[in-house]
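Marked as duplicate of an earlier ticket. Keeping the data here for the record.
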Amino acid sequence: PSVRACAAKSRRRGSGRRTGLWAGMAMEALGEAGLHFDDLNKLRVLDPEVAQNTTELKEECKDFVEKIGQFQKIVGGLIEIVDQLAKEAENEKMKAIGARNLLKSVAKQREAQQQQLQALIAEKKMQLERYRIEYDALSKVEAEQNEFIDQFILQK
């Protein structure tokens, strides 16, 4: 039996002060040596309070590790979502850049087409002016020929 158990037994039996003193001194000596008895009267190196605190700390650490694991899963999911959103944003950005470039291209094509049409209009105006001059010249020739015909008919 342990010293504590003996001390407890002697107190119960009422064997006297001497046994109680001896047990108390033994407990004190063991305590000074760093040895303690737990609730089951087993000899332990750690003080029961320290052992209890260590067990509680172990449980708290276990809970903390579980919570950290859950946190990491949540953060991992969040990172995946953010990465997916970033990819989608990048795709939309590329589409917008492509659409902008297409609009610029269409605008340049329209500008080139407009310049071609303006050149064609200028060419047609010049052609119209030539036709007008030619018409005026032919009208003058016709008038002269009509006058000549009229004079020729009048002379006869």
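See parent ticket for discussion. The helical segments are 3-13, 17-32, 48-155.
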